[in-house]
Write a structure and sequence with these properties.
The protein is built from 2 helices and no strands. By secondary structure, it is an all-alpha fold.
């Protein structure tokens, strides 16, 4: 079964890879800030919903890493 990435041209794949890397950096920074605020919130107020909020967003980071890996693999196959 062909992947959805096989329908993209090389230029589109490169553009998508660049966009994914940018989004990964932004999401990493946001997740880091969420962790920092969760730690300070826990120290000040004890356990709350904010303490566990970064845990809900962390898997998205790994999905983005997996997507970047797949795009790179598709680009290598095309060369």
């Amino acid at each position: 079964m062909a992947s959805i990435l096989s329908t993209y041209t090389i230029e589109e794949l490169k553009k998508k890879l660049k966009k994914q890397k940018t989004m990964l950096i932004i999401q990493s920074v946001v997740l880091f800030l969420m962790i920092v605020f969760a730690v300070f919130s826990t120290i000040e107020n004890g356990l709350s919903f904010q303490t566990f909020l970064p845990l809900f967003f962390a898997p998205m980071l790994f999905v983005m890493l997996f997507e970047i890996k797949n795009i790179k693999k598709e680009l290598i196959l095309r060369k």
